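Readers of this paper often ask what the protein records in our data store actually look like. An entry from our holdings is shown next, in its original layout:
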Amino acid sequence: MAIVSNLRTRLGTKIGPRLNSLSGRLIAAAAVWTVLALLIGGFVLSGIFRASVEGDFDSRLKFDLDGLVAAAEPDSDGKLSLHERFSDPRFERVYSGWYWQIVPEQPKGDIRISRSLWDKAIKLTDFRMQSGIAWGHGIGPEDEQVRVVARRIEFPITATPQRGDVRTYTFLVAGNMSELQNEVSNFNTMLIWSFAIFGLGLIGAIFLQVRIGLQPLRRLSAGLARVRDGEAPRLQGRFPAEIAPLVQELNSLIDHNTEVVERARTQVSNLAHSLKTPLSVLASEASAQPGPLASTVMARVNTMRRQIDHYLARARAAGAADILGNRTPVKPVLEDLARTLSRIHADRSLSISADCPPGVAFRGDRQDLEEMAGNLMDNACKWARGQVEAKVSQQPDAEFDLCVDDDGPGLDPEERVRVGERGERLDESIPGSGFGLAIVRDIAGLYGGALELAESRLGGLRARLTLPRA
């Protein structure tokens, strides 16, 4: 019994998603790694998408800059005119977010701007040169952040006789970065929701996988419970290859435990019977030769017989308590005892009743239950005036109570302590060994039960026996 309890404690009575269980640890670890992987993947994908969008945005700015440069037509003095050659609706709408401007550098002159700038100009905040093109950022007409691309272009002056005269202009195109940021933000929002749903799906799949994967362990735990409760002699059923060796070892352990306990009980019984034979010889010889010595021998022989019966019952109960799968229905045992005691005490016309709900089973050996219930009911019959009742009631904590009441003289509290706890015999005139209640208390203790003596509602003594329920 202790072996199964320890095994069930290690395997878990119910293998659920608790952090102190195997399934809980597997699910928690998988969930943590899933979340970490999704977070890292989300950051990587967001970075890649942002780089792609920024690259596409820069390509559009570069394309517009090349178009602006190509549309510019210089005259003989190096002055530029566009002649509507560069027309794009984005640059015509005021504050549209797309702007261009042409700044003459040498000699100085008026800045030409797109209609979208209206009367404003782009203010550069930073830039870097890359292959002759300046990339940077600036502030737009409504303090908006813009991405800027610029290039310096020289146009020759042919109206003067001097060769090598040129006019230098800076062509600049800018675009509002809010479009880029909105696009990235929308993508990140969609990415977060997609990964959240995907992560929940993965965690749900992991949960199902762990639950299904650990189902054989739950079957093993349930099988051990059936063995402990006496519903099956061994672990039964087919198990996966990884658990099958464990099941075989547990079955071997159960068989070995049963064999060892049975062998020990047999040896104790043999020893007790081998002692009873010489005692019977001594008692026979003492009774054949009356005298003081014979009386002393008979008294000692009776004491030794009681001691042997007492410790034999304890040894048998100790062995039975360790046997796995013991299960004894209580109702048939009480009914058999009631019929037997009615015949034994037929001359006294006692009313002996046994009341037990169907289905109540003692988690132990039938012989031990008969020993305990028989001692209590027989003791009640010896002291009862006319009525003995045995009643079973179930308790919520996997136990049941067997209450045996009689209408005899009863015992006061001090006498109940002396009889129930110390095992003293108060009246030598009543036949018996005097070890009945002591045997009941010892056997019940081996099963984790208890014996209590109290006043009966019938006026006599009540013996309340608490035992484990299968």
About this structure: The longest strand covers residues 145-156. The chain is about 50% helix and 20% strand.
